[in-house]
Amino acid sequence: MRVIQKFFVASLFMWTIPIAILYAFNHNMLPGASNLSPYSMTLVSGFLAVISVNVVIAFYIYLAMREPADKHEPDPKFLAEAKASINQSTGDAQQSSQPLKKQQ
Q1: CA distance 17 to 49
Q2: How far is 20 from 18, CA to CA, in rounded Å?
């Protein structure tokens, strides 16, 4: 699976799973949820929703870490432009510091 597909699937799960948990608790779809007070039901459903988002994020990180590092190579044009930009900005900084030295 491609990286962008993994990202979209993880994003989809980060939205749907917590909403499904909250919906299930509020509509007494889970066994034992009807025995809880409204305050406890809100706390438990919110806690489980937050935990579910963290589980999805951890799974996404796990999948990203399993991605082979040699599979992705940076764009050579982008690298050349980035190096030129860095060299230009350091050259400008050196030129701007020279008048300061002359004034002192």
Answers
A1: 7
A2: 5
CA distance 37 to 68: 49
What pLDDT sits at residue 103? 55
Residue 49, judged by CB atoms within 10 A of its CB (0-12, 13-18, 19+), counts as: middle
Q: Which two tokens stand for residue 90?
A: 């350091």
Tokens, residue 14? 């980060």
Per-residue model confidence as pLDDT tens digits over 8-52? 999 999 999 999 998 988 887 878 777 888 888 889 899 999 999
Measured in degrees and rounded to the nearest 5, phi and psi for residue 3 equal: -60, -45
Q: What is the DSSP letter of 33?
A: G
Whether 33 contacts 41, CB under 8 Å: yes
Give percent of the chain above pLDDT 90: 30
Under 8 Å between Cβ of 57 and 10: yes
Two tokens, residue 53: 């988002």
* Phi, psi dihedral angles at 57 (to 5 degrees): -65, -45
